[in-house]
Structure formats: C-alpha cells, structure tokens
Amino acid sequence: MSTIRLRNVTKRFGSLVAVNRANLDVEAGEVLCLLGPSGCGKTTTLRMIAGLEDATEGDILVAERRVNHLRPSQRDIAMVFQFYALYPVLTVAENLAYPLHYERISKAKIEERVNRVASLLHLESVLQRTPGQLAEGEKQRAAVGRAIIRDPNCFLFDEPLSRLDIEQRQVMRGQIKELLAGLSKATVIVTHDQLEALTMADRIAVMRDGIIEQVDTPHRIFTEPANLFVAGFIGTPRMNLIEATLTEAGESHLRFELGGQQVRLPVTRPGLGAGSRITLGVRPRACEFVSEPDDGAISGQVDLVEPMGAETLVHLLHGDQDLRVVVDRTTRLTVGEQANLRFEPGSVHLFDEAGRRVEPAP
Amino acid sequence: MKRRRLGHAGWGWTAFAGLVSFIYFFPVLWIVLTAFKAHTDALAIPPKWIFTPTLENFVSVFARAYIKGQTAVDTNFDVYFFNSIFIAGSSVLIALVIGTLAAYGFSRYPLRGNSTYLFIILTTRMLPPIVVIIPIFLMFRVSGLSGTYLGVILLYTAFNLPFTIWMMKSFFDELSPEVEDAARLDGSNGYRVFFRICMPQVKAGLAATAVFGLILTWNEFLFALLLTGVETRTVPVAMAQTIGGDIGVRWGLLAAIETLFLIPVVVVVYVLQNHLLRGVTFGTIRR
What we know:
Chain A is an alpha+beta fold. Chain A has helices spanning 42-50, 72-75, 92-97, 107-120, 136-148, 166-181, 194-200, 218-223, 228-233; strands spanning 4-13, 16-26, 31-35, 57-62, 65-66, 77-80, 154-158, 186-191, 203-208, 211-216, 240-249, 254-258, 261-265, 277-282, 287-290, 297-307, 311-318, 321-328, 338-343, 349-351. Chain B has 13 helices and two strands; from the N terminus they run H-H-H-E-E-H-H-H-H-H-H-H-H-H-H.
C-alpha cells in the first residue's frame, strides 16, 4: 500500500527546530498539501520523507515500512522539485528514461514508457531537446513526467507550480490533479499558495514555525479553523480578527464589547463565561452593511473602497481596527461615510485567549 | 539575451580591435618570422620584413654541428619535446583527477573548517616558488626523485592541485544541488550522481582548468632546470642551454624551438576553445 506516515518527527538544525513533533498520515490515493508561510518547515518535512534530510527524532514510514535509515535511492519515492531539477545535459527523452535505469528493462520497453508519458503530458515534440531549450511549462511537464514514469511508493511535489505564470498554473493545477487521481498513490504537495492547496488537496496540513497547526479537509480548514493562525492564513481577503471582551453569556446569545461598542450576537459557546477575553473571527464575505444601527451591528467609518471587478472590498475603520468587508459591486459607499456592519451569526468564529477555536455546542 | 549579429560592431571598432590584437600578437609573430630567417637576416639592422625563408633553423633544432665545420649530431630535442609533453600532460591529468574529486568533496560534503582547509591549500601558491627550491632540491636528492619523470610529474601535480581544486570547486558550487537530489531519488548512488550528472555539467570547467594548468606546467623553467636530468630534460631547459656557442646567440634557432614549442599548446587551446570560453565566463553570467 502506498502510504506515508510521520510519527513525532522532529528536525533540528543546531539550536533551530525546523520541524517539531510532526504527525501525519497520508493514505493511498490521497493528496495532502503542506501549506504554510515560507520558512515554516514544510519543505524540510518533504525532504525528510524523501530522505534528503535525516530526521533528528521520530519515525518516517513509507508504504508502512520505517525508512529512516534508507537512502533516498532506496525509498522508491518520486519527487518533483521546485526548480524542476531536470538533468541539464540530457535530452527530455533521456531525462524521462533516467529513473528507469535501475529497473533493468529492455530498451524497447523504456522507449515505450517514455513515449506513453510524453503523449500523456504533450511532450512528444520536445523529446530530443535539452532542458535549456524548453519553455517554463514544458520544463514543468517534463519534471512531472520523470516522476510518474516509474511506479513509486508515493509522490512528493515541492512548490510544483510556483514558477509558472497564472494561466499555466491554472491549467497545470487541473492536469496534476487529474493525473494524481488516476494513480492512487499517497501524495504530498508543498505549497505556500492557499488557492493551490484548496483546489488540489484532499486534505491540508497547515504549518507554522515547524508545527502542524491543523490537518483537515479544505472545506473544514476554511469553515472551522482550529486556531487564530489558520483562521488568518486561509482565505482571501484575510479574515477579520477582532479582539473583544465577553460581557454577557446568555442562554441564546452572547454580548461582546469591542472597540467601545456593544454587540449582541445570537450564538452560544458553552465554554465561555462573562469577562473572558476572546477574538472574533469574521470573514469579509460573512458580514453585511445595514442602514440602521441595531444591537447586532457595529458602526465605523469607510476608510477605503477597492473595486475588484465582480465585488468590491471595503475597509471600515472601527476604532483603530481595519475591517475588511466584501460587498456586491452595486453597493455604493463613499470614503468617510459612517456605516453599520452586521456579522452573519452562523459564520462568526470565536477564539479563546490562547488563540484556540471555541466550538459551539454540539 | 539577444544574440548579436556577427560584425554588428562595425568596421571602425573591428579595425581598432584588430590593431590592439596585432600589438599583442607582434612578439609571437616576430619569433615565427625569425624562425624562418637565415642567421644574417635574423641579425640584420634595420630588421628585415622581406627575406628568403629557410627551414635551416628547424633542421638544426634536431641535428646540428656544435663546432663549425664538424658533422651534424643529434641534439636530442625530440626527446625533450616528448619529455615536455609527457610531463606536462601527466601532471595536468593527475591534478585534474585528484583536484576534481577533492573539489567535489569540498563543495558537497564540507568539513568542519572547510574554508580553512581551502585557504591552506591556496597558501602553497602564495609564495614565490624560488623560496622553496632549496628544500625541495634536497628532498629530491635524498629521496632519489631527482632527475626522474616521477619526481618532476609529482612536483608539477602538486603545483597544479591548489589551482585545480579552487577552480573546480567554483564550478561544482554553481551546479544546482536539486538536480543531484533528483538523481538520488531516481535511484542513483553517489558514483552515478557524480559521473553521470555532475561531470557532464562541468566539462567546460575541466577544459578551462586543464588549459590553464597545461600552460603553467608547459612553461615552467626554474624547477625543471634543477630537478630534471639529462634524460628527463624539458624543452625550456634545453632551450636555455642552446644559448651560447661559437657564433653567439643563434636567434634563428631559438625562434625555431619556440615556434615548435608553441604548437602543442596552440593545438590544445584550439581544440578546447569552445569549452574554454564557457569555462572562463562560467558564473559571471547569471542563467
């Protein structure tokens, strides 16, 4: 079975902890995206799975077998590198055939497989060129081709689309997703682009400072972020995170004080009592402007209006906090105007003082 | 980068470049001309541009009479040419093999204090060679290496090594480590990564390093003078020994030796010139 498992894997570079007790399970046929800002340890994690870095502690299992002591060449893993890492002096055909060297199969067989992969990835016309003569998109496809020509235990992708332009990126995203769906291997994709992760992954692992903050489906990562970091990291425009104090915890509502204003929201959280310091998380698309102030709305001053085509991004200054609100492009607001903003109660996220998500009653 | 059309610079600049090249090349040209002059033409004042060419000088490189009127005897210059080629070729080759392996090691598997080691290696080239000539001469006398091929080849190898290591290391440093990682994941062991992936990428570097090392060794005089014997004498030493004799310095003969002496290096550089250009500009242009 093609699986990848990490058990309390830690990597230290001197005193720096690059990856801290990471636990992950990637099942056969599953695509897991490691998502996080640069320097969060996601590439190091990937390189440890590949065997290009040794884990300081913990166990790495590939296909249910502990591989910590195995060299990269013995792990039977195919990897696509960020800068493609095509062999510069070999032609595309030779690049594709390179991983087959140790399979001891006939020349004709090799050629057949090279041609099959080439036609799958539309590389037939460039087979005799060297990587230096390829366009960026062709390099990318050649790198993917070299990975899928074997039948490895699992696939690793390191920022596979970061070097492509936006249009090629969308095309390749779809192609890779389609390709991986047909291979039923455990796959780990490292990316810092959340759109890439949300579209390609079956599950996403969000990392920060060497720690895996949350592992979940793209949907749940978006709708139920486990903590403030994930909440702020996923979603564009960024989620509004507003510090507030809970002043009243009623049976069917909560009342907050934020920026000197009182807001009453018809939500409940069993874990919270009056007086707790919390952070409210509201996505820019989960609030709306209302004409009349009421006890469920906060007021502020329109600070900036950014039309984005289909929608308009409005910055509302509430106290010293900049709230981002996405409204329909037909909504007319002028800078300097006072406006009242109401949060969609079902979409409000609450985080406790430690930044952890406070779950609603089951 | 847009490739410029040949001759794009125009006639003015081409002529100017031609003039500068001519000034640089003039000494070589004069030597080659002198090689084809008879003794009287070579000494003529003002210098002669038009003369009857003769091959007499080239003949007497290999066989000549040492005293006027005697029959010509073999000068052994064929042996000296062989010695020069053999000694320079071997030492450059050995230095290239050891140096390339060392450079790869320094580049990919840095030691604790890597740069210190590299610096120490370089310090051996920092003092003028003449400073160490007495100890080396004594060491060669004691060890019996004096006058042997092995001795002088080892010495030149040692001369070439620091330069080879530094130069090859810079070439290996330029290579993308990702490519080697990819080869490892594709099932290659260290040897295959080195020979199949790395070496083809540094071909230009090998060529450039070989040519520089060759020129250095080919022209070396001081150590060759002291450490080679009659059998292992190289051309620069033999050349120096032809100066003198009953009719003063035979400029035509010297020029003929020099002309012949130029040929092997010119051939090597010509063969490697495409690599050479890429080699010396490597790393100065971002890919």
